[in-house]
Amino acid sequence: MIQKKLNVMGMVNDNEFEYKKVYTKEQRLEKYEKVIKHTGEERILVVLERHRKAKIQKQNDKLSQFQLFAINKNKTLVELMQYVKQNAGIDVSTSIFLYCNNQLLMMKSDISVGTLYETYQNKEDNHLYLKYADFETFG
């Protein structure tokens, strides 16, 4: 099963996203439709937010609470991690962890962003919601 292959572990208690509070379901769907219209099916929309318990500091405090970006489905999880650091303004030498649906994602070089999307996409608005933190948050 895909979830086993992703090697997902750990539970955290932070699955609320500011992005969903700012934009209605219709606005979020409209954003998704625009991305598909301009890039085709090869890209997905990712919403990235800082985990509420994370102590990590952004290099640029002017960045909003969330970042929205489109990424190619063929990218690996390792490439996604690099992209996340760049978009969140996190120093490249800082170790971070990614969470999806309250689960810690283990970085495996053979897993694509497309596989992650197929497993965890939000069915309501077709976005992939991720949290990042500088520590493992269990419990």
Share of helix, binned: 25-40%
In DSSP terms (H or I, runs of 4 or more residues), the helix count works out at 5
Order of helices and strands: HEHHEEHEEHE
Biggest sheet record: 6 strands, mixed
Low-confidence stretches: 1-12
Major sheet: arrangement of strands: 1-5-4-6-2-3
Coarse structural class? alpha+beta
- In what range is the share of β-strand residues? 15-25%
Overall number of strands: 6
Query: What is the CA-based Rg, rounded?
Result: 14 Å
Mean pLDDT: 79
Terminus-to-terminus distance: 25 Å
What form results from the Cα inertia axes? Answer: globular
Pfam family, one: ATG8
Protein name: Autophagy-related protein
Family: Belongs to the ATG8 family.
Lipidation (Phosphatidylserine amidated glycine): 139
Structure description:
There is one protein chain. Helices cover 32% and strands 23% of the residues. Residues 1-12 have low confidence and may be disordered. The two termini are 25 Å apart. The chain has helices at 2-6, 18-22, 25-39, 77-88, 113-120, and strands at residues 9-11, 43-50, 66-72, 97-100, 103-105, 127-133. The protein has 139 residues and is an alpha+beta fold. The protein is globular.
